[in-house]
């Protein structure tokens, strides 16, 4: 009965990508630990780039620097 | 000083239901562990059904199947 | 398919208390949101009082002050 | 490689305040534990006052009482 | 810069299994979202079966019932 | 009433360092957001280096490589 929480920045993650993350993570837990998929939860959090910091800075700023 | 995080799918949870979850969880911690309600936090996360997976699939898809 | 995480300080929580927290939280989600208990997870984290802070201080210190 | 999650109520937190929380938390981990800021993540969650409970009540209600 | 938290019951997860969960999850985020593995964190929590509840009961009890 | 969760690797974090993380984080929330320290929680999780992955590998392995 695993619970997996995936946090990524909120940058246009599509339905297909979400479905792929859920299916892939669940399959990994089946393959590696023989868990039951019927009680395997995967929850995806999409976090605003304003609210995610790395190396002292908001990701919003890092994205702007990368674009210049 | 407990901290409780309740994650449910984002499907029209009302103010009254949120209040009932908060009061009920807090009362449970008072009753079972004699905790102080003044420092008992309850945080509810409402997660999009697109972002919650169970048994390889998004809950959105499971809800559609259940409706057909 | 709710997921509930209860964090309390690690101060001799008994098996019976853990069972009461799990059963009580699950019943609350059934009563308030009509959730299915078979896919309701409750995870209890017991946190060392050294690792929990409130009002600038470790709970370990607050417990010592309360005992004097 | 620390990971820090800051949950606050969603009450008009500004870009400058978010940046200050990220920079300040990262600096604290550098100062106290000599961590590498390049692999220090800070994620801020802004939680609706309807979804945060303390002392049996939603913060929304506590704010209304404080204003009266 | 994703952050993934995998919670499983604490039932003899080996080093090889942990390494497989970390590598597999990271590869999934590279494949699906083109994320940079150098800033992809995977944190595994092993939770005592006494502290994990499903369907009103501790997993400890469910395991005992399954063995009888 | 903020809640902060700090996850670091379990590598001999001292009582003094824990106290400094708690006091520093709480002060940051007072300074930046004018929060009440009496209802500011800081919870530190110390995660085994076997259970923390970055860039496909367990931190345990990265530490061994760094030492050679």
TrEMBL record, chains A, B, C, D, E, F:
Q: Name one GO molecular function term.
A: isomerase activity
- SUPFAM superfamilies recorded: Tautomerase/MIF (SSF55331)
UniProt keywords (A-Z) are: Isomerase
Q: What is its EC number?
A: 5.3.2.-
Q: What class of enzyme is it?
A: isomerase
Catalytic center residues: 2
What's one Pfam family here? Tautomerase
**For the 4-oxalocrotonate tautomerase-like domain, which residue ranges apply?**
2-55
The entry assigns this protein to a family as follows: Belongs to the 4-oxalocrotonate tautomerase family.
PANTHER family the record matches: 2-HYDROXYMUCONATE TAUTOMERASE, TAUTOMERASE-RELATED
What protein does this entry describe? Tautomerase
Annotated source species: Motiliproteus coralliicola
């Amino acid at each position: 009965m695993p619970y997996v929480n995936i946090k990524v920045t909120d940058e246009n993650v599509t339905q297909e990508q979400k479905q792929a993350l859920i299916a892939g993570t669940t399959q990994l837990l089946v393959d590696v630990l023989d868990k039951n998929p019927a009680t395997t939860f995967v929850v995806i959090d999409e976090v605003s780039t304003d609210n995610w910091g790395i190396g002292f800075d908001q990701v919003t700023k890092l994205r702007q620097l990368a674009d210049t």
